[in-house]
Amino acid sequence: MISSKVQALISRLLLAVLVLGQVFLSACGSEPQETPTKIVATPTQPITTPQPSITNSPTVQPLPPTPTSLPNDWASRWFRGTPCKPPCYENIIPGKTTRDEAQKIFKDNPFMSKVEIGQPTPSLGEDGTGYVSWTWKNEFSGGSATYKNISPYVIRTIGSGGRLINFPGIIKLYGEPSHVWAKVYFPYYDPAPSYTLYLVYLSSGFMVSNQKFANLPEIAFDMTFNNLTFFVPGLDGLPDVYDSSYHPFKFKEILVPWEGFKSFAYYCRDIKQEKFCKDLKTP
């Protein structure tokens, strides 16, 4: 016979089993509860188009500043062969370069401005003579290149002025001149004579000159000149010159061979103005 204590224990165990069964059934029969998802806003990124790489592109160099004045050695650089040797001047060659080529070269030169083509003048020669002129940057002086008005309009002479040229520097590189023209000139507005000295380097195609001296010039080693002319080397390349009435005649009619550092009167043998030369005293 089961004791009362055992029966009571059994009853408690059964009760516990029933309670656990109810709990299990409740858990299996219920639906799972969804946990609300917290939505966090993500910043929108702009849409960009991929750009090509420029790491291998050439670097653009800034243009050099435009010079505002002539270099100090500008007046003498031509007889050092910069940028070319006589009779070439600033890359223009008498007898080869055309009018249009000369105009472009002058315009591309950073030290030249106001480049213009002058209309041919029929009175200065049978076919007319035209010119391409320029002025030095920020200065009043300049020069011009002349051409005959016959196609293809080839440059015949180039004249430049306004810059002092030292005779010793020329002699150092080219020696003494080949010819001289000592000119006496009476301007229509002044009864007193003026004098012009030309020293010619015939084979090199250039000559230097000083025009309209107030006094009789001295021919000396330390002379300076302010005018420069380039031409096709040789007598036939010399430009036409004009007397006081603007009648053309040839340089070869009045040139005198160089005989050293003699007086202006010694070299004054201008056949067009012979009477004026005779009035000069020859030492």
Task: Describe how the helices and strands are arranged.
Elements: H1 4-29, H2 74-77, H3 99-108, E1 112-121, E2 129-136, E3 142-148, E4 155-166, H4 167-174, E5 179-185, E6 194-201, E7 206-213, E8 224-231, E9 240-242, E10 248-250, E11 256-257, H5 264-267, H6 274-278
Antiparallel strand pairs: 1-2, 2-3, 3-4, 4-8, 5-6, 5-11, 6-7, 7-8, 9-10
Comma- or semicolon-separated keywords:
single chain; 283 residues; alpha+beta; two-stranded antiparallel ribbon; 6 helices; rod-shaped
What is the gist of this entry?
By secondary structure, the protein is of the alpha+beta class. It is built from six helices and eleven strands.
Structural class, by secondary structure, is alpha+beta
Shape: rod-shaped
Average pLDDT figure: 76
The helix fraction, in percent, is 10-25%
| Integer-rounded radius of gyration | 49 Å
H/E series, N to C? HHHEEEEHEEEEEEEHH
* Separate helix tally: 6
Q: How many DSSP-defined strands?
A: 11
Strand order of the largest sheet: 1-2-3-4-8-7-6-5-11
Bin the strand percentage. 25-35%
Question: Poorly predicted ranges (pLDDT <50, ≥5 residues)?
Answer: 47-64
Main sheet, how many strands, which sense, barrel?
9 strands, antiparallel
Distance between the termini: 181 Å
Can you characterise this structure?
By secondary structure, the chain is an alpha+beta fold. It has helices at 4-29, 74-77, 99-108, 167-174, 264-267, 274-278; strands at residues 112-121, 129-136, 142-148, 155-166, 179-185, 194-201, 206-213, 224-231, 240-242, 248-250, 256-257. Helices cover 20% and strands 27% of the residues. Strands 1-2-3-4-8-7-6-5-11 form a 9-stranded antiparallel beta sheet. A two-stranded antiparallel ribbon has the order 9-10. The N and C termini lie far apart (181 Å). The model is unreliable at 47-64 (pLDDT under 50).
